[in-house]
Amino acid sequence: MKKKAVLLLSGGLDSTTTLAIAKAEGFEVYAMSFAYGQRHSHELEAAKTIAAKMGAHEHRIVTIDLAVFGGSALTEVALDVPKDRSEHDISHGIPITYVPARNTVFLSFALAWAEVLGAYDIFIGVNALDYSGYPDCRPEFIRAFESMANLATAYAQEKGAHISLHTPLIDLTKAQIIQKGLALGVDYASTTSCYDPSQNGDACGHCDACQLRMKGFRENGLTDPGSYTP
């Protein structure tokens, strides 16, 4: 039997590549996405398409409301998403698009589902190279959460099995992530990465996420197949 794994699927480039990797490694993937009060739902539509197309065994969308706390341009429409920042600015500091404790919350939900499924593997597409400086994407955070998961769950304690958090992209550049995904047959046209897309879902081409994504394709000598606002 295939081992079960819970995977956080946002509908973006990184999580889609992570899904392809988990499938290639032989896991039966249970994908989890979140309607967390974000300013648009296009990523959830992308996640549905990707989960179905790439053969996730099951895909659940969990509704929570991080917008009730605010503090991020991704959950408060009154806050502007930063645009056209330099590579230096993107790689330094924590931007207003950081959602407080988001990955901690998401991984906690993934852990709860993994315990019910009897799955000891959780995948998350965090990256600590070409990223926007989020503290919950760093290796130190992942190690700490993994340690906590093994202390906090009945199935780890009673059965003595180890819960593993898989972060296959954490040490890769965006260009390397794209290379890996293309080698595994990922269709990046189905993904969306933009923080501030148009009403029809076209990416803005100017936010940090768009700039990092386009840079990755450019460094591979490729054109991003995503849809951008003219």
Name the helix and strand elements from N-terminus to C-terminus, one letter apiece. EHEHEHHEHHEHH
Main-sheet strand order equals 3-2-1-4-5
**Strand element count:** 5
The class by helix and strand makeup works out as alpha/beta
Could you state the CATH homologous superfamily?
A: HUPs
Bin the strand percentage: 5-15%
Individual helix count: 8
In the predicted model, the low-confidence regions spanning at least 5 consecutive residues are none
CATH classification, class level:
Alpha Beta
Determine the fraction of residues in helical runs and give it as a percent range.
25-40%
N→C terminal distance: 48 Å
Q: In this structure, how is the largest beta sheet organized?
A: 5 strands, parallel
Radius of gyration: 17 Å
**What is the correct CATH architecture?**
3-Layer(aba) Sandwich
CATH topology: Rossmann fold
What key attributes describe this structure?
single chain; 230 residues; alpha/beta; Rossmann fold; five-stranded parallel beta sheet; 8 helices; 5 strands; globular
What report would you give on this structure?
With about 230 residues, the chain is an alpha/beta fold. The chain has one domain: HUPs (Rossmann fold, 3-Layer(aba) Sandwich). About 35% of the residues lie in helices and about 10% in strands. The protein is built from eight helices and five strands. The chain has a five-stranded parallel beta sheet with strand order 3-2-1-4-5, with helices on both faces. Helix 1 packs across helix 7 and helix 7 crosses helix 8. The mean pLDDT is about 95.
